Amino acid sequence: MKTASGLAESQKNLRLPFAVAIFCATFNFGLAVLNAVAGSVNTTVVTLVQVLATSMVVACLFKYRARVSLGYLYVVVGVASSWVMVSAYKGSHDLSGLYGAVSVPIFVIFGTLFRPFPTRWLMRFVLVVLAIAIFETVLPNLYVAIANPLSYYRATRAWVAAQQAADSDGLYVGAIRAGGSVFSFFNHHRAGSIFLEPLSLGYFASISFILFSVLYRGQGRRLFSAFCACVLMSLLADTRISTLIIVLTMALMVVRRPPAIATWTMIAVVYVGGYLAYQWIGKWGGDLAYRLSLSYESFANASFGQWLAGDLRVLTLGDSGLVSMLGNYGLIGFALFMVAALNLLDIAWLRSSHAPVAIALYFCVASLFGSAMLSIKTSIFLGIAVGALGKLPSRSISHA
């Protein structure tokens, strides 16, 4: 068992990896500020900075001698190979799919460096993100003057630039919900904080609480404080999905040692349940029915062979993470990607606590309502949660 001095030294060694993680999560905000000041940011700049951020993560793996099993590497190679075959079959390719196939597993391996986990650092970052969200909510005009998310995304995202008529007072294009906000108590818009847009803020809140639910187990006051901070972030983002995930994670804490099949079962329950909900709610229409249709309508119009080949009709790029993953990797590649992203190879991890089940719940539900959970802003913390709370299979080889 480590002494207090040994523990302090171990956490000191985590300063660089944690700083890299924060950079991955926040560089878009920095670029948005630069764009608001100089107006010189474009898609190429964002791509280069994202490559730099990912390269920094890889450099940390070598510097701190991260370890990964051969079996895990085979799965990652399988996902990348699936992307190549699907792209060849369709005669077109989406490089973001290849990036996701490689980056998400890299982030999971990166997460294994965080032992012991710097819980206080995460809480401090959560409080900073929450403070910025409150600042944005109370003083939206000043927030826009500093970062102007709409201007940034129009300069760097083609699909936002195409929506010239959709103005949102300089906020992210989805910051003002068409049917009115559900949980925004202070003003009319959904906060994005340092993530610039509400979905990523809500997903960060979900992942953070899953981490805290394990790290603060048995510490009632700290757990309650973390719960309040994460729920408040979710409410300010007006993200109903993340609020539900946080509450369900709290409920899942009663399960201390779930069977390994529980995580696989959660994946099936979410996707099958989503399809049944689509069939039932679709009769009445509404926003939820529309959102679910973006994922499940593609299945209704495709054969099993098309599922295997990833030949699905995408209504709007990024509107469904599930369809994006299937379209990039095909059915088999998608299954391999889920194994890599959630570390489903490790039975000990799946039996360790409620966390694998909660993470599967988060990832699968989020994939039905867009692709934000695959962006570097949130996938870096997904990888940290899976890697830090879990344990990659014991038969390992060193990267350095």
Short description:
This is Polymerase. The chain is 68% helix and 2% strand.
Q: What is the ordering of alpha helices and beta strands?
A: HHHEHHHHHHHHHHHHHHHHE
Mean pLDDT: 85
Tally of alpha and pi helices:
19
Strand content: under 5%
Intertermini distance: 26 Å
Biggest sheet, in brief?
Answer: 2 strands, antiparallel
When the domains are counted, the total is 1
Describe the structure.
- By secondary structure, the protein is an all-alpha fold.
- Helix content is 68%, strand content 2%.
- It is built from 19 helices and 2 strands.
- A two-stranded antiparallel ribbon has the order 1-2.
- The longest helix is centred in the N-terminal third of the chain and has 24 residues, at 15-38.
- The two termini are 26 Å apart.
Question: What's the arrangement of secondary structure elements?
Answer:
Layout: H1 4-12, H2 15-38, H3 43-63, E1 67-69, H4 70-90, H5 95-111, H6 119-138, H7 140-146, H8 149-156, H9 158-161, H10 198-215, H11 220-236, H12 240-252, H13 261-281, H14 287-300, H15 304-309, H16 321-342, H17 347-350, H18 355-367, H19 376-389, E2 396-398
Antiparallel strand pairs: 1-2
Helix pairs in contact: 2-3, 2-8, 2-19, 3-5, 4-5, 4-16, 5-16, 5-19, 6-7, 6-10, 6-11, 10-11, 10-12, 10-18, 10-19, 11-12, 12-18, 13-14, 13-18, 16-18
Keywords: Membrane, Transmembrane, Transmembrane helix
Organism: Dyella kyungheensis
Protein name: Polymerase
Attribute tags:
400 residues, mainly alpha, two-stranded antiparallel sheet, 19 helices, 2 strands, 68% helix, globular, transmembrane, Polymerase
